[in-house]
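Lecture 7 notes. Example A: sequence first, then its structure tokens.
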Amino acid sequence: MTQPPAAREGTPRKAAVAAWIGSALEYYDFFIYGSAAALIFSKVFFDESDPATATLQSLASFGVAYAARPIGAFFLGHYGDRFGRKRIMVFTLILMGVSTFLIGCLPTRDQIGGLAPALLVLLRILQGLSAAGEQASANSMTLEHAPQDRRGYYTSFTLNGTQFGQILATLVFIPVAAMPEEQLLTWGWRVPFWMSVIVAVAAWVIRRKLEETPAFEREVAAGTVPRMPLSVLFRDHWASVLRVVCAALIATVSTIFTVWALNYATEHVGLDRALMLWVSIVANVVALLAIPLWAMLSDRIGRKPVFLIGAVGSPIMMFAYLAAINSGSYPMIFLVGVLTLGVVYSASNGIWPALYGEMFTTQVRLSGMAIGTQIGFAVAGFAVASAAGIVSPEGWLGLQGWVGVGVFTAVLCAISAVAVVTARETYRVPTEQLGLKSA
């Protein structure tokens, strides 16, 4: 089969760079909310008369975006498979940039009362709707532009950009967290959110000239683009959607590490905020190197064995990381934290764009990945609030404190591992045959 005009030399690299930059900008916005929810919002937007409840509400507001993401996945997935990947990639970045900037403009609870947290949650929902389409559209774009034998490597650029966005968000918050309390709670916390206006501008500049994928153009040329992609998805690919939902629970490792563990270390153990933020930065810097290496390995030996290294190893390392936090030893926290998030978790995190995307045909790839991942990520997002509840005196299934959180994380990782074990290996399947039952 001849390639359509869009399959020009250099386009895979352009698509990967556009995915990397866009994801970095998008997830800078998304992750600064996590740091603010863990360190600041309980004091600014929620009732401080009950600090424990205010913290729980603040962390729950972080999870609200994950609840919105499945809803956004249905709408953006439909339009992405119906009208193309490029339009969704531009729209999601603009929506994220505007909603994040407005969070930085919100009046506090002391100024307008209960309306303040309500507006905060509304804007967080818009962030979630944006994130729902970002990774799936970027992953579809890079996978469908990539050479067949390097799909793992090229699709890893999206997650690599996500990691850089998290690094940037944390770096911005280090000087903010070190500010005097009065300045921090009045205007200091707003600065990282105001900076997101750059995202709206960058979205138009970076992605407006990006070419549509060869695979989607073939569908258009052949007249096989479905009018209702979701009906095709749930009729022919429901098992793959369910498998992606379960596999995506591995993201719990990231949310527990970056949000709950940060709050636990600073509020319960009394560790320094800036030093704990540096743990996340160093771990994500290491992940920038680990993700493409794991992805290249998956192009050689397959997606499943690499993913399972992360799914099995991450909960073991999470126990060690939480134990290190509880010990208060900064050298141990840094060492185990970097190994957990930077190395072991990157095995799963770096190759899931290829693994999930290869489960679907071009007709439903964006919607299949979007819906499957966002439902799984919703569970991962609310895992932060669940972990906060486990630490409470009531505990969870008789378990309390960080041990209960470790067990909770391990259970979700086990579900993810089982889902991938039952999947087909697809790293050698030609791109045009992906998702076909006969392939």
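Example B, a different protein, same format:
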Amino acid sequence: MSDLRLEWISKRAYAIWEEAGRPHGRDAEHWEQAAGERDEFERMALASAKKPLIEISKKAQPKKAETAKAKKKADAGAEKPVAAKAVAKAKSAKGAANSKPV
């Protein structure tokens, strides 16, 4: 047995002994009860690890994400918002007014 398992059983057997009113001479009974509880705990943990907690239907599963290249291409082809166009126009007009002919 591993040290962690023995330690758990020992602590649980002690707790069982205290709950029973600290009777004399029943240590083997408490140890067996604690060992049985640990075995059941391990069985349940293994059983739940083998199967998923919930099943997800095919409809609920996420679709494959777009690739990064396709996303960049879509963003590049997107038109600038109207407000951004207006600001760009104003800046270019201001720049043209301030420029001196050579």
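Note on Example B: Helices lie at 3-19, 27-50, 68-77, 82-98. The radius of gyration is 36 Å.
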